[in-house]
Amino acid sequence: QVQLVESGGGLVQAGVSLRLSCAASGRTFSSYAMGWFRQAPGKGREFVAAIRSGGSPDYADSVKGRFTISRDNAKNTVYLQMNSLKPEDTAVYYCAAASDASGSYYLLRRLTVYDYWGQGTQVTVSS
Q1: What is the mean pLDDT of residues 22-44?
Q2: What is the DSSP-derived secondary structure letter of residue 33?
Q3: Alpha helix (H) residue ranges in 1-127
Q4: Between the CA of residue 118 and those of 4, 94, 123, what are the distances in Å?
Q5: Are the C-beta atoms of residues 79 and 21 closer than 8 Å to each other?
Q6: Pseudo-torsion of CA 102, 105, 106, 112, nearest 10°?
Q7: Rounded to 5 degrees, what angle do the CA atoms 3, 7, 13 make?
Q8: Distance, CA of 44 to CA of 95 (rounded, Å)
Q9: Which of 12, 13, 27, 60 is nearest to 69 (CA)?
Q10: What local confidence, expressed as pLDDT, does residue 100 receive?
């Protein structure tokens, strides 16, 4: 079992930056692919960004060029740097871990590939 704890959310104005953190338990963090998803009120959980164990990233089109996912294996932490925030970015952001991400290039965009999920952190962007 892996525990994930997100932090760094908040209420900000449009155009501002935030950095979300996801701290993971366990000694096998470096072997996990990590993802960020978000869920707005009344909507389903959608893919935001993912990073493989080797560091290769993938982004949703809606955040490409604005968000950056990174990881620090020594700290068992994955980050989501969010720049130029827009009101449509408002959502609860969830961190997730996948123990086996082998497969197609876009595998990490699927909810079902992830084995563990954090509790979520609220990001609210006002206009």
Answers
A1: 93
A2: E
A3: none
A4: 5, 6, 15
A5: yes
A6: -10
A7: 150
A8: 15
A9: 60
A10: 78
Q: Lowest-confidence range among 34-43, 85-94, 103-112?
A: 103-112
Strands (DSSP E) contained in the chain are: 4-7, 10-13, 18-24, 33-39, 46-51, 57-59, 67-72, 77-82, 91-98, 116-117, 121-126
Which amino acid is present at 89? D
Mean pLDDT (whole number) for 112-124: 97
Pick from 83, 115, 80: nearest CA to 101: 115
DSSP-derived letter for residue 104 is S
**Angle of CA points 28, 95, 8, to nearest 5°:** 115
Per-position DSSP letters for 67-97, written without gaps between them: EEEEEEGGGTEEEEEE-S--GGG-EEEEEEE
Report helix, strand or coil for 13. strand
Which residues lie closer than 8 Å to 53 by C-beta, 6 or more apart?
30, 31, 32, 33, 101
